[in-house]
Design a protein that fits this description.
The protein has 2 domains: about 55 residues, 2-Layer Sandwich (Signal recognition particle alu RNA binding heterodimer, srp9/1), CATH 3.30.720.120; about 60 residues, 2,3-Dihydroxybiphenyl 1,2-Dioxygenase, domain 1 (Roll), CATH 3.10.180.10. About 15% of the residues lie in helices and about 35% in strands.
């Protein structure tokens, strides 16, 4: 049996704002699958923006955990970072070359979720 990551749920508190933000960053519209869920297909893995309140679910069931970054590889790291500067991000770090060979930057989306964008030519998978 082989396993693969197929979906990551990203809690948000405004599904419309999440749709707008991630549509702009990912250059795709995605699809609204329920009143509080908007899906983006990123290379076969679904980024599921999830607003529990809009879906009628228990808001208190979702907890934010520090340092649980979602890593997204992109072909033009500088362009993504420049685009993020025009959006409502809580933070945007500098582009850095890491000791393990990745070139990346860390940021926080408008909801405080930690995200990291990595130059696709430098991704490290542990191999």
């Amino acid at each position: 049996m082989s396993a693969r990551l197929y979906r990551v749920i990203l809690p948000v508190n405004d599904i419309d704002q999440a749709e707008k933000f991630y549509s702009e960053i990912l250059d795709q519209e995605g699809i609204r699958v329920s009143p509080g869920r908007h899906y983006f297909n990123i290379g076969g893995t679904i980024l599921a923006c999830y607003d529990p309140k809009s879906d009628g679910d228990d808001v208190g069931a979702w907890k934010f955990h520090e340092n649980q970054y979602i890593y997204i590889c992109v072909s033009d790291l500088k362009s993504v970072r420049d685009k993020m500067k025009t959006l409502d991000c809580r933070s945007i770090g500098s582009i850095e070359d890491m000791p393990w060979g990745e070139t990346l930057f860390y940021a926080s989306d408008p909801f405080g979720n930690p995200i990291c964008f990595v130059d696709e030519k430098t991704i490290f998978t542990g191999d």
